[in-house]
Amino acid sequence: MTNPMSASPGLALRSKSRFGSPEERPDMLRLTALVVMHLGCFAVLWSGWSWTAVQLALFLYVVRAFGLTAFYHRYFSHRAFKTSRWFQFAGGLLGCLALQKGPLWWAAHHRDHHRFSDHEGDVHSPHMHSILWAHMGWFLTPTNNTLRSQLVRDWMKFPELIWLDRYAPAIAVCYGLALFGLGEFLRIVVPPSQTNGVQLVVWCYFISTTALYHATYSVNSLAHLAGTRRFQTPDNSRNNWFVALLTLGEGWHNNHHHYPSAARQGFYWWEIDMTYYVLRLLQGCGLVWNLRPVPSSVFRGTTHAEPKP
Description:
Elements: H1 11-14, H2 28-40, H3 44-47, H4 51-77, E1 82-83, H5 85-96, H6 103-116, H7 131-137, H8 159-166, H9 168-189, H10 197-220, H11 241-246, H12 253-258, H13 274-284, E2 288-289, H14 296-299
Antiparallel strand pairs: 1-2
Helix pairs in contact: 2-10, 4-5, 4-6, 4-10, 5-8, 9-10
C-alpha cells in the first residue's frame, strides 16, 4: 500500500470532487437540512442575543462535543474504556444531541476510516477526494448514510443502541423543542435572563450545532492536511493543536492513528486533551473504568495493531 506521504503535497487540492458521480450525488433532503442549519444561524439578526443564550450555547457545544469524542469515537468506535449499560446508553444519547446521526452509524464509518485511511476506500480522505468532499460532502449521499451493521456487530446486540440509531432524527427534533420550551420558561419565570424560546433555538440549536459540525469535520479534513507528524503512520494524519482545542482533544490525530485504542489522544502533558481529563474524573466516580493507556513502546515509535473489538 502506497504511503501517502510520498504523494505530491498538492494532491488534496487537485483532487476532483465526486459530486458529479451519479451514485455520489447528494440526497436533496439531507442537503436541504444542512443548508437550513447554516441559514438558521443568520436568524440571530432577528432574535438578538443575551448572556444566557450565549453561555448556554457554549456549554452545550462543549457537552455535546464530549458526547462525540468520548462516546461516539473513543468508546463506540474503539472501545477505549468500559462502562455500564445504562451509562453507555446515556453517552450514546448525548452523542445524538450533536445531530451527527446515531452511534452505530458513526462508529461503523469511523472503523472503516481506520481500515483505509487516506487510501482507496476511505470515503472522507482529503487526499483521495476534494477537501470539500472530505469536510462535509461525503455524508450527504445515500450510499454513505446506510448503516454498515457488519462493522459494528459487537454493538448490534443492544436494542437500545439500534433504537438511538433509528430515531436520531426524532431526537434532534425533541432537542430543538426542549430548547424552545426552556427559553419560554426562562422568559416567564426568570425575566432577568433576558432570553426566550426563539433566541435559545437560534443560539443553542443552529449556531452551537453548526460550530460543532465544522469542528468535527475538521478532524477529517484539516487534521489530514495541516499539522505535525510525530509518527510515520501509513496515512497522512497530523497533530493539529487548533483542531484539538476545538474538539476537546481530537486534533492529536497522528497520535491517534498511531495507536487508536488509547483512551487519551494527547500523549504528552502539553497536548491538551479535555476529553481524557473528564474520563479520568468519571473513572474516579466509578462511572467508567479500564481506560486503555498508551503503552510505553508507543512512545519509542513502535507501532501497535489495534485490538479487535
